[in-house]
Structure to design on (205 residues):
């Protein structure tokens, strides 16, 4: 992980192709690193606090945040924003997922779902690559699934956030029951990262 002080050290050599995934979430970073490694793309975690604005578009949130972080550090930045859109709740919490997770959490979501017969939901990500202030590149990823209420055997082993209650279509497991490798076969983030990696390899030969 890179601290801000290191960035001010003139001896610190960022050499060529290194890019920085700006997040406070080590799980997101580990998922990203696993995918990018397959494409031989080196990525470091840039831990940045309190940069996320509230908006009803995850694309707007991700673009604005990436640009701000790029301006602050002058480094090639990857940044993503995700939202959980639950059909039975008219798309709630959507882009406000982080706040809802912090306030009512998974148990609160399950309570809201108690009377719902439709349990389908979509996880969406916008991933932004920003290496100049003029044209941040956006990559979208999404996965449909269901909000489950099955008891997770050991939630502490895998995942974070809504992983214990989200079961992607085509899997017998919720995200929290999957290793990073398994989750990366399905997830919204993995899909956006694949798009990015293919684009990056093409334009950074
Ligand atoms: P963020 O604003 O992109 O960090 O994410 C919004 C909320 O969704 C946060 O509470 C995250 O913990 C949660 N979240 C984002 N991605 C995932 C995921 O892959 N699995 C489970 N929860 C997630």
């Amino acid at each position: 992980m890179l601290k801000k002080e290191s960035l001010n050290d003139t001896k610190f050599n960022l050499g060529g192709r290194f890019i920085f995934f700006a997040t406070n979430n080590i799980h997101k970073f580990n998922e990203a690193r696993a995918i990018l490694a397959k494409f031989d793309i080196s990525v470091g975690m840039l831990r940045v606090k309190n940069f996320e604005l509230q908006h009803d578009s995850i694309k707007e949130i991700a673009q604005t945040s990436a640009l701000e972080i790029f301006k602050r550090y002058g480094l090639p930045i990857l940044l993503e924003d995700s939202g959980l859109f639950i059909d039975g709740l008219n798309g709630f919490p959507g882009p406000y997922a982080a706040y809802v997770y912090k306030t009512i959490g998974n148990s609160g979501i399950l309570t809201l779902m108690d009377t719902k017969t439709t349990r389908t939901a979509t996880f969406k990500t916008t991933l932004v690559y920003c290496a100049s202030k003029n044209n941040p590149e956006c990559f979208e990823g999404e996965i449909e699934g269901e909000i489950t209420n099955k008891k997770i055997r050991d939630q502490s082993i895998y995942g974070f956030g809504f992983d214990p209650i989200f079961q992607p279509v085509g899997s017998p497991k919720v995200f929290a029951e999957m290793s990073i490798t398994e989750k990366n076969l399905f997830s919204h983030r993995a899909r956006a990262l694949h798009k990015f990696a293919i684009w990056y390899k093409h334009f950074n030969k």
Summary: Residues 25, 81-82, 84, 97-98, 101, 160-163, 175, 187, 189 surround inosinic acid (CB under 6 Å). Residues 2-15 have pLDDT under 50 and may be disordered. The first helix runs from residue 4 to 8.
